[in-house]
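Hello again,

I reread your note about wanting to compare the complex against the isolated chains. To keep things tidy I'm splitting this into two emails, and this first one only covers the full assembly. Below are the input lines as submitted, including protein chains and any nucleic acid or small-molecule components. They are followed by the predicted structure of everything together. The single-chain runs will come separately.
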Amino acid sequence: MSENISRRDFLKLATVGAATTAVLTGCGPASRYIKREPYMEMPEYTYNGLSTYYATTCRECAAGCGLIVRTMQGRAIKVEGNSNNPVNLGKTCARGQATLHGLYNPDRVQGPLKRTRGTPFDLRTNVSVTWDEAVQVVADAINNNNPSEVAFLLGMAPDHLFDLVSDLANAIGAPAPIRYGALSMFEARATLIKASENLFGTAALPFFDIANSDLVLSFGANFLETWLSPVAYTRGFAKMRRGNPKRRGHFIQFESRISQTAAKADEWIPIRPGTESLVAAAIGRLVAEAKGGAVSEVFANVDLNEVLSSADIKLETLEHVAEMVGEAESAIVIPGGSALGLSNGLQTAETILTLNALADNFGKPGGVYLSPFLPNQDTYHRPASAQEMAEFIEKMKSGDVKVLFVHGVNPLFELPESLGFADALGSVQEVISFAVFPDETALASDYIFPDHHGLESWGYQRVATGTEQSVLSGAQPVVSPNYDTRATADVLLAASQALPFKDEMEFLQSKFASLVGQADDSFSAPEINTFTAYFQQHGGWWKKSSELVSPSATDTLGRNFAVEQAEFAGEGEFFFLPFVSPTLGEAGANKPWLQELPDPTTTVMWNTWVEMNPETAHELHIENDDVVKIISEAGEVEAPVYLYPAIRPDTIAMPFGQGHTAYGRYAAGRGANPAKLLGQHFNEAGDLAFAGMRVRIEKIEGKKQMLSRLESRIGVYNEGLEEH
Amino acid sequence: MGIDLNLVGAKGAIAEEAEGKWGMVIDQDLCTGCQACVAACAMENNLSFVGEEDAGYGRTQHWIRIERFWEGAYPEVKATAFQPMLCQQCGHAPCEPVCPVFATPHSPAQEINLQVYNRCVGTRYCANNCPYQVRSFNWRDYHLEPFHANNVDGQLVYPLHNQFNPDVTVRRRGVMEKCTFCIQRIHQAEDKAKSEGREVHDGEFTTACAQACPANAITFGRMDDHESLVSQLAHQDRGIKHLEELNTLPRITYLKEG
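Full-complex prediction:
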């Protein structure tokens, strides 16, 4: 803008700016950050009073939704969905909306720190170091140790940092980085992939095309909450319900409690936990018998009467479901986390996928596909299963890990305590955390070298599933870093000379190289710098047309395997069902507005509760808000009871997401963590049998904790009515 | 429209006509209760979070909330369709006539129900008279509580304030507030349309809740344009209005489940 600008001209310009609100990119790699400038020297594309919009990627979970962030004078104001990104098509979930409460969280780590392990987080008592010293510490850690004794533990998202650390580990001869997240444990992702490998010969994530199906059977799949790619599956659900004017899709959920997803089901069938595979096989048998012809052995071996008694289900119900499956044009059956996180989880997943084979929907609209890979990728690197984490923890305990780098994951909170991560940390000489927030693991580290928040960072994220085409969701900073943080990629590149890149951007461009000039892209760019600019502007790169892979299933119905009931660990009168809080997810507890969102089914805010059937509670003389102790073979936790009318009398359920001892002022000391109750039991695919625990409860006499709920207490189970 | 809703006796006859300018349709068959609209509203409109204790007293500042009710007892229990509840922008708003200071007038231009924060003296009569229970009161200066601040060289610094939307007033203690149909977005679209010498098109902009909704359950637009999506949806067989019998003329149509 020229210096001699009249007020009238300025107003004209401002109007033009308002009329052409465009998504701006930065100016390529040369100017890497948008600075927070005084009004006097604003960048030319920023007008006072007008917003600038940047396309980036949501980092709140690993789904990889595209965002457009509205900024004003260097501040991020509002998150919107990127309507071009195939994952979310302009929509966001609550966690995505609240990502700004992470960016501007008062409890961020504000600079590199040297710490004494286990001391409270306090900027005054922790020793600040300079970034030069920090880089030197990382360099020493990488170079002065045997590479086999250096370990990298990363978050669940398959992002650019995972690629960089993989390349780095490969170059220096260190073991490949491990990715982990509590969500992958509760989704039993490893089991889903293993089942896909056993049936289709490809270790890929299945894609369930519920949008085009007219009957959805879900065994505990919480696809409207946190499962795999919730925004994409919610869109699919909406299309299933109302997308076709000729029919309204029917949805049946088998689950021992009404979850948020089950609340949207037309029929909720509360089968006994652990009998999912039996019920699926029984439905298969009835469907196959009704069709006529040979019944495949895996279904034929099921004793219907046994299923009825063990699953606590009526024959009419089973026959009704089977009839619906037989009549549906395109029925689909989805295996969810709580059905797979059992001792027989792999068998359950295979039975359910076989039921899809009976519905003959592989590779057909409304059926099961495999998620596509990116053109520069040949396999899906899944996050570690709990068993692989247990093996890694053993390695730490034996002293074979001298240096541990942790980024994007909080294993002290997200792993069941029984796996012993806390003890194992004691055997690691040096723990270096790149945490954005002072979480439990960061506080147990020797150094915190904070990365930028996701909205201050460059990068990309592979979209593992949820879309029909391959997607590389792109990230760029929407604001300049608020604090003295530094991109972990830059720190690693500066510390180690093993990779030939000057900085993060050079590394990113090296990964883009194979995508330049591909056909059928979301944009076409002749060379790398243009590609990078378009990549920022569009918020990523993706193919235009569907690339879903039809599973190569041969003789799926001919396979035979034993279908049995799951075994439960421990003793007690209750089945225990932990589920991921739909609003908090695994890492939302430090965002105050997420804390104040009512849980969709109980309307509880800011705390943890135990869901118990009112009849059961009545027998045990337990009322709302009575605190009980839940005891499993692995541990015990205390939490107040919520009388939940929609849960089996033999089951109690608890949300995962609270119970932090650190992680900032909004999370610490609030609620309880059900992961403390989970023992070391794995299924055949290595996933934790988290839904396979039995627990007992003890009422703590005289102890009450009033839960804050949105719903009124008046009239709920006659509470508060006796006075009137 | 030009109908003076304050005319005595005009009510029944004009109910059909008085659909208002801006309207919303919420499809309860699609709403998954995910709370994305609640979070989006909070971020757009600078809503305060009040903390666990005040939330327990029912003092939350939710301009939109998701209601769910239970029907029956186990095992025949059912959750009713999730029901997003927000200010219905009534044509005959019960909150309006009870305000002693005219802080909640009806806007002739936008045909919605306004809340003028700097007129409000906090009698809370309006909240008392609202049959939908969608008004929330600022019992404290929630956003200024020192708990949220960091002490930087003796000064309280509130990092969360960086997120505030400059187009929306930050309310202080003692003031009533409620959903405004994102009036700042309406104004922005109107200004832009005016500068281009035209009317605001349907679908040119939308409210924060409708924009976020992953299931596309919320549709916002011009009710006075009978070709608009929102108007078409509102006239489906499934459409109902809440507490219609009170003759509040709500501007929000709910589409029933099934």
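For quick reference: The first helix of chain A runs from residue 7 to 19.

B.
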